[in-house]
Amino acid sequence: MDFRYADGTVIGNGMPIWVRFDMPVNDDQRAAIEKTASVVTSPVQEGSFGWVDGTTLYWRPKEYWQAGSTAHVEVKAGGLPAGDTWILADAAADYVYGDLRVMYTDIDNHSLTCYQNGTVVNTIPVSCGKPGLETMIGTKVIMDKQSPVVMDSETFGVNNESPEGYKLNVYWAQRLTWSGEYFHAAPWADYAHGYQNVSHGCTGMSDANAEWLFNFTLIGDPAEFVGSTFPVQPYQTIGCWTYSWEDWQLQSAL
Prior knowledge:
254 residues, Big_10, L,D-transpeptidase catalytic domain-like, mainly beta, five-stranded mixed beta sheet, Immunoglobulin-like
């Protein structure tokens, strides 16, 4: 058992506290483990633990983390059974959350509005997924940041030489889903930014705007999408925000 992010990490305000288990925890073992877990936040914020699968326990606040929040988490589950093995030791960590940055993408209007503590700081023309490859709607979380990253259609079973194939070094890339949606620079589609959706599902923008966004965000910042008919599923992103608050509480084993 450990935490996805190291003690002392500064992370974005959509990132839940993320407890990981080496082996899948059986349904009948989860309540005992969860009873040993606690979170103390400053300022005080309502929140709940929830299991998204057998190896992942999240704690998220009811709303995004408030700007300037801190959190202390303890899981005193050392010695308890987890799957076919035992948890070897307790664990604890502290986290810091900075300004509340929210990226709001309107797919139909081809725009990405960037908020910092409730104030608009930039509006970026973008191009999202074209018909048949639509960008998913709902709340995602920036999961990783790389520049460059190799994007290869053969990862998804599409030959590089086919009409929809590609293999590219892509710059200022920020992953939003496990299945491969990103914010990233797409200079080959500058003609479409702000006007037309032409991508394979990612949210593309100019080099300059992608670099600005890359430097503006933290891993863990929330990214909200509206304007298509395909909702992102919990298993496709850091999925605690795909649930309503009422439904999220039902993910707890207690």
